[in-house]
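Record 1 of the preview.
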Amino acid sequence: MTIDFTILAAALSAAGLLAAFAVAVGSRRRCARLERRLASAEAALAAVRAEAVAAAGIGGRVGERLRRLDQLTGQLADRLGQIEVRGDGRPYDHAIALVRHGADADRLVSHFGLSRGEADLVARVHGQRKAG
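->
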């Protein structure tokens, strides 16, 4: 039996081409799958970024509202103190006690709603005497 090497070479060449074609088709399929996965991951990342931006915006607005509420709470507490002091009918007693602990006329005006003249008078009469 004689082997024709040209036919054998052609057969081997055809087999090699078929193998290369099969590898190329398989690689193309894997590449297409990877591209789909990449597109899906990119879409998921874009959604997470959008949610993060929305959450940051909400957090900023919540922080601003908390700061405003703190300011209002402080203002209301001051006002309530003024109302309670006036409600007693003895704002001067509380003002005198505060001056004796070192408060000045400005504080009396802001805390007790006294006029500037009243606050100055209470501060001079009941304030700590300076060594002179």
